Amino acid sequence: MFVVVALMVLAGVHNLRERRTKLQQGQIVMMKDNAAKGETIASLGSPAPEDDLRGKAAPGFTLVDLAGKKVSLADYKGKPVVIDFWATYCAPCKLEMPWFEEFTAKYKSQGLVVLGVDQDDSAGKEEIALAAKRTGVTYPILLPDKKISGNYKLGDYLPQTFFIDKNGNVVEEVIGGRSKDEIEADVKKITE
Amino acid sequence: MMQGLGIKEQGLGVAMLVALMMGSLVTPAQEIRLDGVSPVKKPHLVLLTDGVDVKAGAEQTVELRFRVDAGYHINSHSPMDDLLIPTTLKFVPGMVKVAGTEYPQGEIIKLTGSGEGLDVYQGDFKVLVKLVAPRGFSTMTGTVRYQACDSASCFPPKTLAVRLAVTAK
Fold it and tell me: A158 vs B34: CB contact, 8 Å cut-off?
C-alpha cells in the first residue's frame, strides 16, 4: 500500500513538472478570468482557431445598403474585397474607415472593393448614415441581417476586418484597429 | 476496501492500480486550456459599493464607486462625440428618493493616429448621488449604461445592474 501511495505522489509530481515546463515554453495559453471569446492577456489580433476563416471561402451574403439597395458578395466575384465590420460607437473603427476610402482610390486599377458592414444594435439608419458621412467614406455601408455575424464568426468586439482575394478566399482576418501601414500590407496581399 | 478479497485478487488490484499510475507517468501532461470559452461576456465595469449608511429623512450625498477593468475605458457621462454612448446611472423609483446625480469629470485620451480626443473614465471613479432615505433598511436598484473599449477595439454597449443597500438611522 505504501508503494502504491508513493507511486501516486510520484505521478502527480511528474505531471506538475510537465505542466510548469509547458507553461514556460508557451505551449499553454493562460487566459484572463472570464476572458471574452478570443481575448488573450496580450491583445486582440487574430481569431480563436475555431473561428478562423483564413484559407476558407468567404461566406456569401446579401445585405441592404443605406439607400435600401441589395448588395451581395457575389456581385464582386473576381475582385479583391475588404469587409469591415464597424459600429457608430466604435472610435477605432471610425479612425480606420477614411484609410479604407483612400485604398479604394489607390488600388482602383486592381479592382479593390471595400464594404462596411454596420454592427450597431440600437442605432437607427440615420445615425449610421451620419457616422459614415462624418468619416468621409463613399464605399457601400451595409446593414446587417441575422445571419452574417454568425457566418463570419464575429466576436464581441469591433472592428473585425476580412481581406478576401479574387478567388473568394479569406486571406487575412483581423480583430481590432491597426495602423494605416498594417492595413495597407493586408490590402496588398489581396490586390497583388 | 481490500477486506474479503483473496491474496490473488488483492495482488491483481494493486497491479492494476500500479499500471494506472505508471501510465500517468508516461502520458503527456494534462493541457490546460482556459480559452475553451466562457459563454459569459466580460462586463469590464463593476460597482464596488454595495451599501451606504445615511441619516434618515435628510438629504445626503453618497458615493458609488465603480471600477473599469485595467486596459479598458468607458465613455464619460459627456463624451465629445454625440454618437458615442455616455455612461449613465439610473435608479428605479422606490422608497429612497434620488434628488440628483453628479458624475466625475472624465480624462481625455487619444487613440494612436487620431487627432481627436475621447472623454473617458478609466480605473476607479465615483458617482455622487443625492438621496433621502426613510428610517430603516432599503434597497435601491438601477442600471448603469456604458460602452467599453481598449486602445484598439470596442465592445457593444452594456447595462450593469446596480443594487445598493441603504441603512438610514
Answer: no
pLDDT, chain B, mean = 85
pLDDT of residue A94: 95
Handedness of CA B142, A126, A88, A119 (dihedral sign): positive
Element (H, E) at A105: helix A91-106
Nearest chain A alpha carbon to B115: A95
Contact B83 A130 (CB under 8 A): yes
pLDDT single digits (tens) A34-68:
334 333 323 457 788 888 999 999 999 999 999 99
Measure CB to CB from residue A7 to each of B21, B42, B149 and give the nearest one: B21
End-to-end CA distance of chain B: 62
In the predicted model, is pLDDT for residue A167 greater than 60? yes
What is the share, in percent, of chain A residues with pLDDT greater than 90? 70
Q: Where are the beta strands (DSSP E) in chain A?
A: 62-65, 70-72, 81-86, 113-118, 141-143, 160-164, 170-175
**Element (H or E) spanning B130, and its range?**
strand B124-132
A133–chain B Cβ distance below 8 A for any pair: no
SS3 A180: helix
CA of B156 vs chain A CAs: smallest distance (Å):
7
pLDDT higher at B111 or B122: B122
